[in-house]
Amino acid sequence: MLNLTTKIEHITVEAGKRILVTSDIHGNLSYFKKLLKKAEFSENDILFVVGDIVEKGNENLEALRYIMKLCEKGNVIPLIGNVDANRLKIIDELCEDNVNGFYKYILNLREWAGTSFYEELANECGYTLNSAEDVLAAKQAVITHFEKEFGFLVNLPTVIETQSFVFVHGGLRERRVSDNADKGIFELTKFDAFMENTEHSFEKYVIVGHWPVCLYNNRIQQFNPIINKDKKIISIDGGCGVKKDGQLNLLIIPDINCSVNDITYVSYEDASYVKALEDQKASDNSIHISWIDNEIQIIDKGEEFSFIEHISSGNRMHIPSSYLRGENKCADYTDYVLPVNKGDSLLLIEETSKGYIVKKDGVTGWYYGRYV
Ligand SMILES: [Mn+2]
């Protein structure tokens, strides 16, 4: 029987070492590897991986094993995420009553990610998942074969407190770290919109993943880590793999005793860039519609663009018709005009006859100039 309990650990980080922090790799191993390379990660660094190692990407098992291997050196410190814990729970509790729902979920992931964690596990055990019966049939073999991997995940800490920082996937429910000991593992790993929803200002900076940072901003669509000095929270999930313009972020803390102002980051996104040929000024007023508030009314549906009203804000605008999702929803969208300098590298997201939706330095918006 699986024993998923909250584990709070205290560690002292050696001064003079660089501390790197990432989260929400979600089975996107190539992002993770390229990000580490970009940051010139070495055995002299301490690396925290703040949960959600698996699911949503297509290299879930490999990502898990890669991190397990990295941990052997002693300078990599992973924590559990809600998806990691939830997957263990689902596999452990898998039975005739719930297997249909889980099979549906597997099919869903197969469609948009190519595979899923459980599918990879079952495949390695020689099972092909073509029905709910197949999913259940693979269970015992999966549990036996992956004892080591499951043991690794189950034993991951939920919260780690150091001299200066606290790490947790979702967030802390109570201001004092020790007061969170009786909170359930999902209360701490699945604290949605923690930075917005917590009332606390913490003693030490709390570094979290889980909630893609782009969801905190309804004006600008931006994916870079957010440092909230009032609440003392650093939110780092760049939505890697979940969104096509998402990125994997790596916080760089130069020293455990450094000031928060010395913290920087690097990001990795999977894309090719174009070069801007013209300058462009940023727009003053903009809206960012994200999936937590994407109800719209279509006023005039067109071939390339449609005129819509965003219900909650009342804003009316033209959006590419390819961004419509059914009759009353739209994909994540912003009308923000990006500040661009000639020569800037831009990630091309959408080409239209009016201009381009691009991403630059972690921010998405329109560019109306020419590029090469
Ligand atoms: Mn999560």
Give the helix/strand layout:
Elements: E1 8-10, E2 19-22, H1 29-38, E3 46-50, H2 60-71, E4 76-79, H3 82-93, H4 99-113, H5 117-124, H6 132-145, H7 147-154, E5 159-161, E6 165-168, H8 185-189, H9 194-197, E7 205-208, E8 221-222, E9 226-228, E10 233-235, E11 248-253, E12 264-268, E13 273-275, E14 288-289, E15 296-300, E16 305-310, E17 316-320, E18 324-325, E19 329-330, E20 333-334, E21 345-351, E22 356-360, E23 363-367
Helix pairs in contact: 4-6, 5-6
Bound molecules: manganese (II) ion.
What does this protein look like?
It is a single chain. The protein is of the alpha+beta class and 372 residues long. The protein folds into two domains: 8-268, 4-Layer Sandwich (Purple Acid Phosphatase, chain A, domain 2); 274-367, no CATH class. The protein is 24% helix and 24% strand. It has nine helices and 23 strands. The chain has helices at residues 29-38, 60-71, 82-93, 99-113, 117-124, 132-145, 147-154, 185-189, 194-197; strands at residues 8-10, 19-22, 46-50, 76-79, 159-161, 165-168, 205-208, 221-222, 226-228, 233-235, 248-253, 264-268, 273-275, 288-289, 296-300, 305-310, 316-320, 324-325, 329-330, 333-334, 345-351, 356-360, 363-367. The strands form six sheets. A six-stranded mixed beta sheet has the order 1-5-6-7-10-9, with no helix packed on it. A five-stranded mixed beta sheet has the order 4-3-2-11-12. Strand 3 (46-50), helix 2 and strand 4 form a beta-alpha-beta unit. Helix 4 crosses helix 6 and helix 5 packs across helix 6. The longest helix is centred in the first third of the chain and has 15 residues, at 99-113. The structure holds manganese (II) ion. Residues 52, 81-83, 169, 210 line the site of manganese (II) ion.
